[in-house]
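hi! just following up on the protien thing from before. the input was this:
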Amino acid sequence: MNTLFIKNMVCNRCIMVVQNELDKLGLTVKKIKLGEVTLDKEITPEEKNNLDKVLIPLGFELIDDKKSRIIEKIKNIIIDLVHHQDNDTKSNLSDVLSSQLHHDYNYLSNLFSEVEGITIEKYFIAQKVEKVKELLVYDELSLSEIAFRLNYSSVAYLSNQFKKVTGLTPSYFKQIKEGKRKPLDKL
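and the predicted 3d structure came back as:
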């Protein structure tokens, strides 16, 4: 097994933490990306056990079964699309997932819903709403710019989706978040 699949690797910091643990165990990484590590050699059962012991307390987990790997790949593709790319493409999510995972979208959608208890679309929307929250708190972009960056057809559509998920309007969310933040010199 040259390629390991690791659950909960969702950001660049996760990649650094996993890379660090692999280095400590003397395992040489050829390639590492969200949810996936390619090693230069087969991992022994003992090395796998040791890796499991250090990853689990950090919130990560080795994934062995095929279905769980596919679910984790779906999540990582969505997280990458929403949080790590300036999404210039107007590609359909179903097309992106099908082409990257080499499976029919209906299969992926049914598997995801069965295992996770929510649809891929709801997971995608939840990720987009989290990104909107992050961008609102940074206060660097207008709502129109956020809508454009996240490929919303309009500010109204973004606002409606945001309110449906959070119960708050984006402007109210921004207002209450700013009220809770203290200037650095007041800490």
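The chain has nine helices and four strands.
The first strand starts at residue 3 and ends at 7.
cheers
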